[in-house]
Amino acid sequence: MRIGLYQFAPEFAKTEKNIRNITEAVKRSDADILVFPEMALSGYLFTSREEVRRAAVRPDGPWINGLREAADKQGCYVVIGLPELSDDGFYNSAVLIGPDGHVGTYRKVHLFYEEKSYFGAGNLGFPVFRIKGLSLGILICFDHMYPEAARCLALQGVEVICHPSNLVLPEYGQLTTRVRSIENRVFWILANRTGSEERGGKRLAYTGCSQITAPDGKILTQAGEKEEELLTVEIDPSSACDKRVTPLDDLFSDRRTDVYSRYLDTDVKCPDL
Amino acid sequence: MRIGLYQFAPEFAKTEKNIRNITEAVKRSDADILVFPEMALSGYLFTSREEVRRAAVRPDGPWINGLREAADKQGCYVVIGLPELSDDGFYNSAVLIGPDGHVGTYRKVHLFYEEKSYFGAGNLGFPVFRIKGLSLGILICFDHMYPEAARCLALQGVEVICHPSNLVLPEYGQLTTRVRSIENRVFWILANRTGSEERGGKRLAYTGCSQITAPDGKILTQAGEKEEELLTVEIDPSSACDKRVTPLDDLFSDRRTDVYSRYLDTDVKCPDL
Predict the structure, then answer these.
(1) Separation in Å, CA A172 to CA A109, A113, A202, B177, B218
(2) pLDDT averaged over consecutive 10-residue blocks of chain A (273 residues)?
(3) Which of A233, B134, B142, B217 is deepest in the core (most CB within 10 A)?
(4) For A57, which DSSP code?
């Protein structure tokens, strides 16, 4: 099983060009699962809802045709971030596309900064997709900051977490996702973007350094800060099913839900907040 | 407000010598809160329950007298790991001692490896102690691996987490505790031990590198791998009350408990585990 990522700089509002770029990467890659950045189709720095409307696509729209063909030819699945058009508005989403087309969609649960003005908060939960004999989950960018997000996926048995990102806070995402790998014993594909965007008086610089980490926290591969890179590594997904840190310490069966539930099952118990 | 730690190598079964060492550190320090390693009174590598019985002390026993006097003179609070003797058995505990003596006890919730043979699992929850105008929580060593532990404390409003440790897995604790600081926006005092122990055919080497991290993940001070070190830093505890990463992103009020609760409120929903 080979898993990979494509780190690049999507161009704002140039959907067709970005899709061509993504499709070429699929054709060049030997990965079984290939992950692309957040908003890889559209670029990220929207400054109005009208811009979002112009860029948004349906997850199973005709735009996926060429990509589906490439996925079919390569026998691979791809995860791509995009602005989703739905009947009830827009979402910051990532879609899973395979040889047969659209498999499923994840809508970002923890929106970041001005995304809150443009997108609805994710309302599909943390879905798990079963492909090629493994279970896969998707998180998007800022979701990394909340340990609950990865935990919700890991407790459903995912071996791999795909993480399309547009990280702008230095170091945080690379650090937290490595720890999420360790604490959940899962593989983690952080596909970040590079470059910067300057629009409407605002500027964002993206941190690159995409990486894939193993259940023991080892960094299996890591991209540079600015380079466009297509990275792939060979993994044994079944190693993520073993939650033991030592023969006597299983991180999942040793969870003390009896204790957590006194504090975490409701927010009412936190008077200071 | 000054917070600190004392990294050293407690000697196995030499309780009086270790207490002298600890008391001297309290006298030398200018910290308001000073944290010592796990099992700082006794050493760690027990090979029988009988050895635990010989080393175990009551949290408010006469052994604290000299220490309380030093704490009183310095106007400080100390957190010290020890094998606790209680009416219903032994616990891997840490006590908080101040100018007036014993303030409270935390019993390790997530026991590691052969501790499970010698100690009862923590049954006092995750208590919060209010001293010097701030709220403080305690975790012990392997608790760091479970994001729920720090979360339970942070949601109760602690600004500082004291973390007596005897870390043996390279890098893990130093990485995870930095991320716990970031995701909970709290100060974290990781007081690890140094040296190694060899007893009954077993050997453990401790990783040192104690550190204090800030709510933004900055490492404020860090000890070496092998050195005995007394470290202190000046902090503003109130900075841990602000959970915002940006003006629009409050890590606590933005938690999506409506989504987490579908997955985390019970273990029944995880058929694979």
Answers:
(1) 18, 16, 21, 13, 11
(2) 98 98 98 98 97 97 97 98 97 98 98 97 97 97 98 96 96 97 98 97 97 98 97 97 97 94 59 36
(3) B142
(4) B
The nearest CA of chain A is from the CA of B143 a distance in Å of: 10
Q: Which of A138, A172, A179 to substitute to test the interface with B, most B CBs within 10 Å?
A: A179
pLDDT score of A265: 55
Q: At what angle do helices A65-74 and A15-28 cross, to 10 degrees?
A: 10
What is the distance between the alpha carbons of residues B11 and A11, in angstroms, rounded to a whole number? 61
The encoded tokens of residue B84 equal 């606790």
What pLDDT shows up at residue B193? 98
* Tally of residues, chain B: 273
8 Å CB contact of A257 and B246 = no
Do residues A62 and A107 touch, judged by C-beta distance below 8 A? no
Query: Could A146 and B251 be called an inter-chain contact, meaning their C-beta atoms sit closer than 8 Å?
Result: yes
Q: Could you tell me the domains of chain A?
A: 2-243 (3.60.110.10)
Residues above pLDDT 70, as percent of chain B: 97
User: Which residues, including other chains, have CB under 8 Å from residue A66's CB and lie 6 or more apart?
Assistant: A19, A23
Spatial distance between the Cα atoms of B64 and B23, rounded to a whole number of angstroms: 10
User: B15, B167, B162: which is closest to B97 by C-alpha?
Assistant: B162
Pair type for strands B101-107 and B89-98:
antiparallel
State which amino acid sits at residue A257.
T
pTM of this prediction exceeds 0.90: yes
- Residue B265's pLDDT is what? 55
Nearest chain B Cα distance for residue A103, angstroms: 22
- Of the pLDDT bands very low, low, confident and very high (cuts 50, 70, 90), residue B159 is very high
Mean pLDDT for B137-150 is 98
Rounded to the nearest 10°, the torsion over CA A41, A46, A52, A56 is 10
ipTM: 0.95
Residue A221 neighbours by CB under 8 Å, 6+ apart: A211, A212, A231, A232, A233
B20 in helix, strand or coil?
helix
Residue of chain A with shortest Cα separation from B266: A257
Which residues does A36 contact at the CB level (< 8 Å), separation at least 6? A5, A6, A22, A25, A78, A79, A80, A81, A164, A191
What pLDDT digit, counting tens, does each position of B225-271 carry?
A: 999 999 999 999 999 999 999 999 999 999 999 999 888 854 433 33
Rounded-to-integer distance, Cα B107 and Cα A233, Å = 42
* pLDDT tens digits, one per residue of B47-73: 999 999 999 999 999 999 999 999 999
The CA angle B59-B63-B69, to the nearest 5 degrees, is 100
